Amino acid sequence: MHCWFFTSQVFKSLPGKALVGNSRNFHCIKPLLQSTRHRPLVETITTLRQNLIKSLGRDSVSDTEAIRKQHSRDEGVERHNHLADLVVWPKSTEECSIIASLCSEKKVPMIPFGTGTGLESGVCAAYGGVSVDMSKMDQIVNFNPEDFDVTVQPGVTRKGLNHFLKDHGLWFPVDPGADASLCGMTATSASGTNAVRYGTMRENVLNVEVVLADGRVLHTAGENRRSKKSSAGFNLTNLFVGSEGSLGFITKATLKIYGIPEMMLSAVCAFTTIKAAVDTCVQILQSNIPIARIELMDDVAMDMCNNHNKLDYKVAPTLFLEFHGSEDSVKSQAKFAGEIADYNGGSEFRWAYESEERNRLWKARHDIYWTTLQSNPGCRAIITDVCVPITRLPDLITQTKADIQESGIIGPCLGHVGDGNFHTFLVFNPNKPEEFKKAETLAARMTKRALDLNGTCTGEHGIGIGKMNYLEKEMGPVGIEMMKSIKKTLDPHWLMNPGKIFLSEY
Ligand SMILES: Cc1cc2c(cc1C)N(C[C@H](O)[C@H](O)[C@H](O)COP(=O)(O)OP(=O)(O)OC[C@H]1O[C@@H](n3cnc4c(N)ncnc43)[C@H](O)[C@@H]1O)c1[nH]c(=O)[nH]c(=O)c1N2
Ligand SMILES: CCCCCCC(=O)C(=O)O
Ligand SMILES: [Mn+2]
Predict the structure, then answer these.
(1) End-to-end CA distance of the chain, in Å?
(2) b/e for 57-74, b at 16 or more Cβ within 10 A?
(3) Which of 88, 111, 179, 475 could form a disulfide with 159 if both were Cys (CB 3.0 to 4.6 A apart)?
(4) Which ipTM value was assigned to this complex?
(5) Burial of 326: CB neighbours in 10 Å, binned 0-12, 13-18, 19+
């Protein structure tokens, strides 16, 4: 198996089991957890496997290498190739609780697995252990259309839920580009293009059921509670939003849902400079137009988007906008936004009412990562995800663009400018370490800039392994210490998804 990894330092093989697989230029993109943790011993895994089969049935447990590989990485750039020792599929909260108890008894790591569309290596098996694939728990367990809430198990994806909801004139608007599991989206505090109007997962999760590392079951807002708001004690629900599998298994999520708007109007508008485009975004938001989504794609992204999708948009910094509401309200919102765009030199406005045309436009935006890779065959990309206060965005993106242009690296800038959150895809050839080094340096410089501008290293993709280094700077020592003391309370043996989020254990 040819696999390649990159390092700013030579990979430190972990104590315990030898690394699986041979590879040229074997490196690791980030220093793994500096810990004395060992992978589980073979005999421990053998006994655990027998106990799991006894409890769950043979069809719910696998140690096949191909299945372990499939569960040991996500859609982000590869950071190492350690494999989970086992993969299990719980069919209920009770079975998930049994898995947690059996693994805890043997002190074996557990990694919740949703649909593997994460980007920061959140599901990879840094220290072996058991990958717990939640996909067989795939029911919509409680639907209250009149109260605008629904409760789903972890195998339900966002498109699956919307397919169910649409016949009721309802939808769930948080829309990462992938068809991710809703509990995985909860675990990474995911977001998407609709966040400007509808918020992120953080604002749309009312309650979660969690199986803790020792098998206990927790309902973070109280069992079956689904009020839109509550001030009853600590907000345990939001403790698990963004926990990235490090605090427990999310086995149910109660979500806010919304009426499908009477009308959705999309528009595309080109600008002469990135600054003009982003200034337009800031002014639209400051004018309090209740815009649903506003996304930026720079000239590099537009060029690849046109070529890949046979489109003919202007190759220039472009805003993708969408307005939701009654026909009158949508038209007046669009008119006002159009005037602001004109003021900033916007041109080539193209409107789309029909869902087919709108979906085509937004698919081009959602698929831009794959478009970038397919436009640069054989390459990979470091994906950045900084988020800053909206007024800081124009300068940050302009400086980032200048750095990328100076570096010679291909690096489209795009994303959720309505939230102050944007991405670059810093493309590099895996056989040219100097390109990787440039991409990594650009990512580090951009992230430092965002942190210096009172922002964050990750607006929506989470920390995983990819951003462990940045979290320490972002949160400071007391913040990290507080997070670890919470983790120690919930997972005293550090068994839930070890090797992620923190550079060191307790
Ligand atoms: C093409 C494309 C486009 C996008 C994105 C990906 C891709 C491939 N993403 C990233 C990704 O879709 C997002 O991080 C999802 O929340 C991941 O959900 P999965 O179910 O795939 O989780 P996945 O299986 O990848 O796991 C992610 C993390 O959550 C944990 N986890 C998963 N299920 C859990 C459960 N039931 N209980 C506890 N922990 C659990 C895992 O342990 C891991 O740490 C994204 N993201 C975004 O926010 N905005 C965006 O716009 C996009 N766009
Ligand atoms: C497969 C990687 C997707 C890159 C970034 C996805 C995202 O957050 C977005 O497009 O927005
Ligand atoms: Mn995004």
Answers:
(1) 35
(2) eeebbbeeeebbbbbbbb
(3) 179
(4) 0.99
(5) exposed
Nearest partner of 87 among 64, 106, 108, judged by Cα? 64
Q: Can you tell me the distance from the alpha carbon of 400 to that of 422, in angstroms, rounded to the nearest whole number?
A: 11
Residues of the chain with pLDDT under 50: 1-34
**What pLDDT is attached to residue 30?**
45
> CATH 3.40.462.10 residue ranges in the chain?
263-452
CA of 118 to the centre of ligand 1 (A): 4
Buried b (16+ CB within 10 A) or exposed e, 150-159: bbbbbbbbbe
Ligand nearest to the CA of 368: 2
> In 3D, which of 110, 60, 115 has the Cα closest to residue 85?
110
> What ligand 2 atom has the least distance to the C-alpha of 365?
10
CA distances to 68, 134, 190, 491 from 95, in Å: 20, 11, 26, 19
CA of 301 to the centre of ligand 2 (A): 13
pLDDT tens-place string over residues 237-270: 999 999 999 999 999 999 999 999 999 999 999 9
Neighbours of 387 (CB within 10 A): 22
- CATH architecture designation of domain 1-135: 2-Layer Sandwich (3.30)
In whole angstroms, give the CA distance from residue 458 to residue 422: 10
List the CATH code of the domain at 140-259: 3.30.465.10
What is residue 363's predicted lDDT score, i.e. its pLDDT? 86
Burial label, 501 (beta-carbon count in 10 A; 0-12, 13-18, 19+): buried
* pTM to 2 decimal places: 0.93
Q: What is residue 458's predicted lDDT score, i.e. its pLDDT?
A: 98
Query: Tokens representing 246?
Result: 């490090």
State the CATH class of domain 263-452: alpha beta
- Of 92, 159, 175, 181, the one to substitute when testing ligand 1's pocket (max ligand atoms within 8 A of C-beta) is 181
Ligand 3 centroid to residue 178 C-alpha, Å: 10
- Which tokens is 433 given? 């370490």
Quick check: helix, strand or coil at residue 301?
A: helix
Q: What is the pLDDT of residue 45?
A: 97
